[in-house]
Amino acid sequence: MSEPDLESLRSGQLWLDFCESLKSAGAEILAAGAPADDLSRAEGFRYLTRLLRLSLEKHLEFSDPFCPQFYSLSHETAKIGNDNPDNYYQNCAIDGRCSYRITGNAGQAEYLSIETKAGSFAGQGDMAPTGHVTLDDLELGPGGEFELLVSATPQTGNWLPMTPESDNILVRQTFRDRRRERKVELQIECLDPHGEAVLDPAQFAAQLGKVVPFINGTAGLFRQWMLGFAAHINQLPPNDQQMCLRAGGDPAIYYHNSYWQLAPDEALVIEFMPPQECRTWNFQLSNFWMESLDYRYHRIHLNRSNAQLAADGRVRIVVAGRDPGAAFPNWLSTAGHECGAMLLRYVEATDFPSVHTQVVALDKLIAEGAA
Predict the structure, then answer these.
(1) Theoretical Cys-Cys bridge with 344: which of 4, 85, 196, 256, CB 3.0 to 4.6 Å?
(2) Tens-digit pLDDT profile for residues 130-151
(3) pLDDT tens for residues 151-168?
(4) Could you write out the DSSP letters of every residue in 236-285?
(5) How far apart are CA 188 and CA 273, in angstroms?
């Protein structure tokens, strides 16, 4: 950093510029095509405060690739890109020119993937995959323990590839019942440490400058996705899978992303036959900002383990603002929302059945269930 730039740190202008730049994020919430109802508008501005928290964590608190730590870039109160309520997410900053060792012990997750990636959502950039392993790929010790080397050069044994451009790790642990099952505990160390873990003023100034671009890039990227999904409202076609991968998706997951919109007296009925071979699947509802609806207090998602199947094995989900009754056990609540995103995931599936959707009158559905 040049002396004039350091002077902005000393004078406080750096902070003033940061605060001023943060104002720009509000344009994403007010942009054309975004819903203007009070709930969506309030959630939109709350979304920006959540992205601010996550961006500060990412760029300031956990950004040192030489002293790496796992943290969560998506959780119950800060969410990105149709976060999966069945998942426990972990992230970590790395440097693709270094080598790392991850140690852990197999928990009770139904699916675990560990990926190296390059890039972020800053400037609506890509988060390209550079390496991918699952728990099934790893050799485990007698107690379920494992050690995983991460490097750009091939290693014997458990190895997670990356490239010199890799700069982050993303871990997904997917559960049948996340509240009750034990997660995998992971630790990471850099095998090529540099320097000491001391705040560098010039580096801090540069890191602070990355915070707002991440907020704008993330909010802008998924708002654009929603504008694209508006071409098939209340339908659930397959997503562009490469688009999902560029945005940090898992190559073992097949995605159906879309947009739902219902009046208070309407219900959306979704039917599909699960793949013949599939480790797991789940379906979720999100708001317009592609944050999962608040699953702490509302039933807004289902998975293979808790959905009730029809006699022929088919899944029938009802999305509505109120419970249509016991005849529809797979009811999901819109939690007071008029519209939002929805996502069906197949994990390690070998076939990808089509999904049928239909909007029906809620009262008529309730009457049919009571008959």
Answers:
(1) 256
(2) 999 999 999 999 999 999 999 9
(3) 999 999 999 999 999 999
(4) -PPP-HHHHHHTT--TTEEEEEEEEE--TTEEEEEEEPPPSS-SEEEEEE
(5) 40
